[in-house]
Design a protein that fits this description.
The protein is 5% helix and 13% strand. With 325 residues, it is mainly β.
């Protein structure tokens, strides 16, 4: 299973390559690089055993006892050496024929900006009140010029401008900064069905193993490779797609279920009963034998993955059209 392979790569620091992002809208292939967050701006390093890599944990080394400066995998490489942030150290250790670099220890990583200590704690090149995360701190609201603007951010430390999270803007009114931050985008629940980092932890979509490990959208049987498509919910004949979409299966044998995805109905799909209820198939000759009716409320706006099998689908309540007796 590719998730197990990815977990092993996280542990040993192997090169996991690049994945398809679909312009930020598709599900990542599970071979995607951790640094490609699809949401823009986290600067995370792709795991690699290149000699100059920031973290070589698990990579071969020599001679024993050698040390090197390092920056832990998963930490923002753009913060390395900025402000209070400092490299850690890893040591070549282990017995036998193949020693390896140990874990990166002792690094000083970005922390919440303290706003009054004169130190760039968040390691983003801004200090104290000049840091957007300090905009709503009382120590930084000492007056301003009406009409003046400044960036602001109220989210948790380490999430600013990571993934989909973005700064907002404050505008000075009557020589006072407002108490709120207009336009900011804060961390939200991860959406395992796309390739963006909504919870702003540097891990987009299916690469966020903490959230998406068991999500149907991230299982190997679903491969979203067309714009606007998503993964079905559930599996087998009772799997469902969002209303207006039809299940597409590619490949498949007696021993291999192939890959599946839910895609918007097109005129080419009017041979499938699930699409005959859609405007795109109105009047299509392929739908002439079907009787269509509104979906029951219990379907929650979902349709069955595939509704063109007779009589198999006659007992499926979420097939909007059928040729059942």
């Amino acid at each position: 299973m590719r998730f197990l392979w990815l977990v092993m790569c996280v542990a040993v620091g192997c090169d996991v390559g690049d994945g398809r992002t679909g312009g930020g809208g598709g599900v990542h292939d599970l071979g995607a690089g951790v640094g490609a967050d699809g949401g823009g701006g986290d600067g995370g390093a792709t795991m690699s055993c290149a000699a100059d890599g920031p973290d070589l944990t698990g990579c071969s080394c020599g001679p024993l006892g050698t040390t090197r400066g390092c920056w832990p995998t998963g930490s923002d490489v753009q913060a390395r050496g900025v402000g209070a942030c400092k490299d850690g150290t890893q040591t070549c250790s282990g017995g036998g024929e193949f020693p390896g670099w140990g874990a990166c220890m002792g690094a000083v990583l970005p922390a919440a900006e303290q706003c009054t200590d004169g130190v760039d704690n968040s390691c983003d090149g801004t200090v104290d009140c000049k840091d957007p995360t300090c905009a709503t701190n009382a120590a930084c609201n000492t007056g301003c010029t009406t009409g003046e603007t400044r960036p602001c951010y109220d989210g948790p430390s380490g999430t600013e401008n990571v993934g989909t999270c973005k700064d907002g803007t404050q505008t000075c009114v009557n020589s006072q900064w407002p108490a709120t931050c207009a336009g900011e985008v804060l961390p939200a629940a991860e959406n395992c069905g796309d390739a963006q980092d909504h919870n702003c932890n540097h891990l987009p979509g299916c690469l966020d193993l903490f959230v998406c490990l068991t999500s149907p959208a991230c299982q190997s049987t679903c491969k979203v490779d067309r714009t606007g498509c998503v993964c079905p919910v559930g599996d087998g004949d009772t799997a469902t797609c969002p209303g207006g979409m039809v299940g597409i299966t590619v490949g498949g044998t007696l021993t291999n279920p192939g890959t599946v995805e839910c895609c918007p109905c097109t005129q080419a799909d009017c041979g499938n009963a699930v699409c005959c209820a859609e405007t795109v198939c109105a009047g299509d000759a392929q739908c002439s034998g079907y009787t269509c009716k509104p979906l029951p409320a219990s379907c929650g706006g979902k349709v069955n993955f595939d509704c063109d099998d007779f009589p198999e689908d006659c007992d499926e309540p979420c097939c909007p059209c059928s040729n059942c007796p």
